[in-house]
Amino acid sequence: MLLAIDIGNTNIVLGLYQRNKLIVHWRIETDRERTEDEYAALMRGLFSIKDLKFDIVKDVAVSCVVPPILSIIENLSKKYFNTSPLVVGPGIKTGIPILYDNPKEVGADRIVNAVAGYEKYGGPLIIVDFGTATTFDVVSQKGEYMGGVIAPGIGISMEALFERAAKLPKVELIKPETVIGRNTISSMQSGAIYGYAGLVDRIVEEIKKELGEKAFVAATGGLAEMVAAESKTIKEVNPFLTLEGLRIIFEKNTRKL
Question: Average pLDDT of the chain?
């Protein structure tokens, strides 16, 4: 089986594939202080809950935007899964031409999303990823990665409010009952959910104007479903888009699946 690992700034998402089928997935906190053995212990616990053992993992594919953790996961893969992971980066076949001024600047997760999105939806395509940052990635009709937009994520925006505004509390990110908040907490929740839905719709509309053609809009990431429910432009939420992209890229480079 293939273990796909997407290392983000806030969370690490893991998915176990049997051929092209995602059989189980997990989301854990990204912790730069954990060692490879501590991550392995955490993963072993997750496996055991599903009555799975490490020896079923034959291959590992990784995308990472947190360089200090990459070496930890590489060492973990070699030590506990007896395999060197396929790491998305320069030299890896993706099938997606990158039209960025400097292709090395594009985060691995954004390329992985583009690969999976284009295979599933075709192009032109706009992918909105609600992670630590909210990113918009644009794929052309021909399957070229054209570039995109990076905006502050919902979580860090709310955290900034809490840290910089003395009287504003930390709040749970849930949809309020009404847009007009009648207390501080619901007012902040309204600003986050409806504010980001508006941000998404405006940016998508501007991207479509520049493209000069219709584009399918898909969303992924931890808060995608909540915001997408209030968005006029997002057509589908795919929470496992990045994991799917890792599986596809692994197959392109090894043909083992």
Answer: 93
